[in-house]
Amino acid sequence: MALDDVSFEIKKGETVGIVGPNGSGKSTTLALIAGVLRPQAGRVDVLGRVCPLLELGAGFHPDLTGRENIVLNGVLLGLTRREVLAKMDGIIAFSELESFLDQPVRTYSTGMIARLGFSVAVHLNPEILLIDEILSVGDLHFQAKCRGKLDEFKKQEVTIVLVSHSVGEVRRLCDRVIWLDGGRKVEEGEPQHVLLRYEAAASVVSHLRFRQA
Prior knowledge:
The chain is α/β, with parallel strands linked by helices. It is built from 7 helices and 6 strands, in the order βαβαααβαβαββα. A 6-stranded mixed sheet has the order 2-3-4-1-5-6, with helices on both faces. It is globular. The protein starts with 14 loop residues before the first strand and ends with a helix.
C-alpha cells in the first residue's frame, strides 16, 4: 500500500501504535522506518539502532541448526559474531527451545521459528523496536513472556512502534496512536480517543458488509 502525505514524529522512549484495516499502509510504514523500503517522495529520518520484528525468522537458513541460525540472524541484525555468542545463553533460555537447538530449522514448526526469531531480536539491545503483528507468537505462556519483555523495554525507554489489530494490546501499551486508512493518516492522538473513533468506524463498516451479505 502506497502512503499519501503521511507525516508524523516519534520521540525517544515513546510507544506508538499504528492501527487501520488491512491494506491501510501500516506494514509499509514500518518497512520504511526499518529501511526495507525507500520512499519515492519525502523522507524518513531515523536516529537510533533499529530492531525490526516484521517477519520473524525471515533471515533463517533452513539447513542450519537453530544455534547456527541465532548467530546468522544476530549478525544480519547488526551484531558481531562475538556479541551474539555472548548473548547466546540468554537467547536460548528465553526461546525455551533448548532441546531443538542442534536440529536444522527446516524441522521446526512455524511457531518455533517465530519464537526463536523473537528471542534473537529482543536480545539485541534495540533503541527503536518495530513490531508487526507478532504478539501472538507461540502458546499463552510464551505470549505472556513477550508482553513482559515489551514492558521491560518501555521501562528502559526503548522507542517502540507497534502495528496490531488487537485494540486491547495497543490500548495497554501505547502512549499515542496513529490511525491509517487507504494510505492516508485519518487521526493521531491519545489512545483512548483515537481507538474509540477507530472502533466505531470499523463497526459501521462491518455492519454494512453484513447487510450487503
